[in-house]
Amino acid sequence: MSSSAEHATLPSGHTSSHCTSATDAARLTDILRSTVLPTTEDTYLFRRVSSEAPADLAGYDAEIERLQSLLGCLQSERELLSTYTERCRSALSPIRRLLTELLTEIFDWCAPSCAESIENEDTADMELERLAKTHLLQFSAVCYRWHEIAMGSPKLWSTIVTDADLWNDTDIRTEHLLRRLELSLERGANSPLVMELGLPHEDDELQSSILKLVTPHATRWKDIYLWIDPSSVELLAHMRGNLPRLESLSLSASTVDPYPPGPAVFDLAPRLTRLTLTGWPLRLPEIPWGQLLDVKFMNNEARDITCGLDILSLLQKGAEYRMDIDCVCHALTYLRT
Asked: Gene3D superfamilies, from UniProt (predicted)?
């Protein structure tokens, strides 16, 4: 049997001392599958291959390593070109031409519905989302400009909705939740504050901690909804005379228990024209009734109708007044003339 070993040229230009043919490979397979011993010619070939192959294999390995390195460089260069191309397209994107004011409005419109008001169906996950303003954090991760707009626009951080009764249903520590609330207040700067705040029913310490964060911003209060124990209104006493922007106030009682007389809080609010009282037990809070233009009184007990009628006598001419007793069966609307 004649040897078919030949010289082969590697891609790098080096020369391999042999190249195994299909015939040689088939012959070797037959020998290994049988008890036939190699011939003298076979033995010579196998010994020469065994002796010379390591050098050839080393050459192949070196060439493969060189090609892999070249491939890595090509892939890196391609990635750089692809990224640069995408950035060029981004630089020409129409959205980059939008005014900052318009983008701010778009970001505001994209707020989830749970960030607009408290609902009975709200969950702890929804509370965490609106407290952290997750939609703004997502916008801020898009690009540098969006980050600057999302983080640096006080208007976007000046609508605060939180129901602290849900905080105990989360795995996050209370101090971290308070910090999220504090961040929103800080980022809102001096922008008018729209706030819907559900204070905890049976956690006086948490209620006090929340009020300590929000009351220093009293000068920003514009449209405020407080779900609060009437007896806790005294915690707001230091804000009296410090509500220059307050235009709309909603007070919803978290309990129907009678409460002792407390200090006035909202009677010195020069811009207050809209008031809603929900479930407020018996005694009315001190309010500048004579300047109100739109008043709603909603209670569940028929005995509160006297209190509701007392309000009517306090309003100025032309004020619109809605009294809803039992919230379902009776709804009376008055226009004081």
From this structure: 1.20.1280.50
